[in-house]
């Protein structure tokens, strides 16, 4: 698919992904990855003036493997989203998975990681570390996903864990998180009321 250490946007045209002519399509909510790829869903948020992020690693069929949530000293959503990507790749390495689809609901993160736009000063070190992690993988694909299909990572990013980061295994998931995972794997859309 992709040479080691390179990235591509699978099945997406960057122009179409950002065009207003490409509306959200709820029938395309869950996009399964081919085995043995994992999906690394990521999200960042600012709640009560504090930066938070969340990441969920799933099998190709939508089964959750591992999650994480944490805080980071930034008030930039883009930086928080990038931090989630970094931790997602760290977790993938910890569970010895070398093929991943990184899924982000941030066009800016997609552009930064694919080299489509110039990095800001505050993102350079984080993007460098992410690219180093990506270079250790056998295959790594970056994909944009609409926020409405990223409920699990959004849920985790909304947690107030009070520490830099904490990992979750499926046996420790709260019931409402399990319900979101199940609904997402069935193709249901997560609507945000904000």
Summarize the structure.
This protein has 194 residues and is of the alpha/beta class.
Report on this model:
With 194 residues, the chain is an alpha/beta fold. It has one domain (32-185): Nucleotidyltransferase, domain 5 (2-Layer Sandwich), CATH 3.30.420.10. 31% of the residues lie in helices and 22% in strands. The chain contains six helices and six strands; from the N terminus they run αβββαβααβαβα. It has helices at residues 14-18, 77-94, 107-114, 124-135, 151-157, 175-185; strands at 38-47, 50-58, 64-71, 99-104, 139-144, 165-168. The chain has a six-stranded mixed beta sheet with strand order 5-4-1-2-3-6. Helix 2 (77-94) runs parallel beside helix 4 (124-135) and helix 5 runs antiparallel to helix 6. Mean pLDDT is 78; it is low at 1-28.
Helix-strand makeup class: alpha/beta
**Quick one: CATH superfamily?**
Ribonuclease H-like superfamily/Ribonuclease H
- What spatial order of strands do you see in the largest sheet? 5-4-1-2-3-6
| Annotation, overall tally of beta strands | 6
What is the total domain count?
1
Rg for CA atoms: 15 Å
Q: What is the percent of helical residues?
A: 25-40%
Shape: globular
Beta-strand percentage range: 15-25%
Architecture in CATH?
2-Layer Sandwich
Oligomeric state of the chains present here: single chain
Number of helical segments with 4 or more residues:
6
State the separation between the terminal residues, measured CA to CA.
39 Å
GO molecular function: nucleic acid binding; RNA-DNA hybrid ribonuclease activity
Organism: Kingdonia uniflora
Domain RNase H type-1: 41-157
InterPro entries: RNase_H-like, RNase_H-like_dom_plant, RNaseH-like_sf, RNaseH_domain, RNaseH_sf
């Amino acid at each position: 698919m992709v040479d080691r250490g390179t990235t591509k946007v699978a099945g997406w045209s960057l122009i179409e992904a950002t065009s207003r002519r490409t509306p959200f399509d709820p029938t395309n909510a869950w996009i399964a990855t081919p085995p043995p790829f994992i999906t690394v869903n990521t999200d960042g948020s600012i709640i009560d003036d504090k930066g938070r992020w969340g990441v969920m690693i799933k099998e190709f069929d939508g089964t959750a493997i591992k999650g994480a949530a944490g805080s980071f000293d930034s008030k930039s959503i883009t930086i928080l989203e990038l931090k989630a990507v970094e931790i997602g790749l760290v977790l993938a390495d910890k569970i010895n998975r070398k093929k991943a689809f990184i899924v982000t609901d941030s066009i800016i993160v997609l552009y930064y990681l694919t080299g489509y736009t110039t990095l800001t000063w505050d993102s350079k070190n984080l993007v460098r570390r992410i690219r180093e992690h990506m270079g250790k993988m056998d295959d790594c694909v970056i994909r944009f996903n609409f926020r409405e299909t990223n409920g699990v990572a959004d849920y985790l990013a909304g947690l107030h864990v009070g520490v830099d980061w904490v990992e979750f295994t499926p046996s420790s998931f709260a019931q409402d998180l399990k319900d979101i995972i199940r609904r997402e794997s069935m193709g249901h859309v997560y609507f945000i009321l904000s």
